[in-house]
Amino acid sequence: MNDSMPGKDELLNLLKQRDIPFFCEEHDSVLNMAESGMLTLSLQGARCKNLLLQDKKGHHFLVVTTATKSLDLSAVAEALGSKRLSFASADKLFELLGIRPGSLSPLALVNDEAKRVRLVIDSELAGESTFLFHPLENNASVSLSRAGLDDFLASVDHPADWLVFAGRASD
Known about the structure:
Blueprint: H1 8-17, E1 22-26, H2 33-38, E2 46-55, E3 60-66, H3 73-79, E4 85-87, H4 90-97, E5 117-122, E6 130-133, E7 140-145, H5 146-155, E8 161-163
Parallel strand pairs: 2-6, 3-5, 5-8
Antiparallel strand pairs: 1-7, 2-3, 2-4, 6-7
């Protein structure tokens, strides 16, 4: 286990040091969007679904989309110029980003110094002014403005690619 990776407190301190405004609210641990949807938060912002995907060539993608969208993985693969995508394992999530399932968000890229994960954000979120993300742990949420998110990503040298992703057609 990589004990040197920052956790929630280090991440929040980093945001403060870099003058990136945010609000943080502690809450019960949540493992998925359904549980997250049950939370009553005082924080405002777009709740996002965060997925760590990988292809056969060993490329990793952190895909951020709207809370309600079911992504069509083959369409996502095509948008990323990749052949076939699958979900990364819990072990891979921990190896790459030092977090456990349920805690994934772009803030975890603070732990990807090797730049092995490409951040891709659904352009459907481009109109949002504020986002809610887990700060490396799933028992808290951080509210970040779009500018704050951009500043954070620049500070960890992980610019986002904003792409159009098709959702799965509902039956």
